[in-house]
UniProtKB/TrEMBL annotation:
<keyword id="KW-0479">Metal-binding</keyword>
<dbReference type="Pfam" id="PF13359">
    <property type="entry name" value="DDE_Tnp_4"/>
</dbReference>
<dbReference type="GO" id="GO:0046872">
    <property type="term" value="F:metal ion binding"/>
</dbReference>
<protein>
    <recommendedName>
        <fullName>DDE Tnp4 domain-containing protein</fullName>
    </recommendedName>
</protein>
<dbReference type="InterPro" id="IPR027806">
    <property type="entry name" value="HARBI1_dom"/>
</dbReference>
<feature type="domain" description="DDE Tnp4">
    <location>
        <begin position="172"/>
        <end position="244"/>
    </location>
</feature>
Length: 271
């Protein structure tokens, strides 16, 4: 865009375009991103930062960031869709700082010495890499920590806290996450209950504090019961081993508890 504007100014100076054309073209070529001189800042180097700086900006200490890269299996170097190559350390720091609320991409420029579009691509690519590697932890119930003995211990812990049910192993609820008002299709994401434009997510939390399942995003106008039907959580429970043992989860007031009859299900299995 800056080069295009320079060309428009040059054309106007050579009398190639008139005043009206110059005004229209110059205004139409206005860049969407702020013109911040990112090249004037020093290149990013994590080793030059102290632990307090890392904790403040990234919410992790310096050595923990290196450990996080290894644990999340982020490749040492990867390429964005436009061919931009970035190393894992810088990409992880951009990703962490972007999600350290509140933070905008323009605020990352002085630290990482990169323009806004590149920062956005790097953060999104890092997020995609982490999701592609670990999304199964939130989308399937076939986890080692969700086997039948663990579910029985969860149900027992909930019952000992005063719950009337002896076979309730977790809790499900929908969460409304406000977003900026979109330019189009505002009614689709508008939540009349919270009076905000939003996206909704549904999660199932076990007594140990871990999220057993996460579904979303769903448009903000959807009711919790509609989101439950879309997530196909109940059919998944009916086809797994531990639901045959009559263990199910508790719901909120808007989502009635649905119990599975283990004898009926077992009788439908082929001999």
């Amino acid at each position: 865009m800056p080069k295009l504007r320079d060309a428009i100014v040059f054309a106007y100076g050579c009398n190639v375009i008139n005043d009206v054309e110059y005004a229209l073209l110059y205004d139409a070529s206005k860049p969407k991103n702020p013109d911040i001189p990112y090249f004037a800042y020093d290149d990013f180097n994590l080793d030059n930062m102290t632990d307090d700086e890392c904790k403040t900006e990234f919410r992790f200490y310096r050595n923990d960031i290196y450990n996080l890269i290894d644990v999340l299996r982020v490749p040492a170097e990867f390429t964005c869709y436009n061919g931009l190559k970035v190393d894992a350390v810088e990409a992880m720091c951009i990703f962490l700082k972007r999600f350290a609320y509140p933070c905008r991409y323009a605020e990352l420029i002085p630290r990482f010495s990169k323009p806004e579009p590149q920062l956005c691509m790097i953060a999104n690519q890092t997020m995609n890499i982490i999701y592609d590697t670990w999304h199964h932890l939130f989308t399937t119930f076939e986890q080692p920590w969700l086997d039948h003995p663990k579910l029985e211990s969860f149900a027992e812990a909930i019952h000992l806290k005063g719950a009337a049910l002896r076979n309730c192993w977790g809790f499900i609820d929908g969460t409304v996450r406000p977003i900026s008002r979109p330019g189009r299709h505002q009614r689709v994401v508008y939540n009349g209950h919270k009076k905000v434009h939003s996206l909704k997510f549904q999660s199932i939390v076990a007594p140990n504090g871990l999220i057993a399942n996460l579904f979303g995003p769903v448009e903000g106008k959807r009711h919790d019961s509609a989101m439950l039907a879309q997530s196909q959580v109940l059919p998944q429970h009916r086809t797994t081993h531990w639901i045959l043992m009559a263990i199910f989860f508790a719901s909120t007031v808007t989502q009635p508890i649905q119990q599975v009859n283990k004898f009926k299900v077992l009788s439908e299995e082929p001999c």
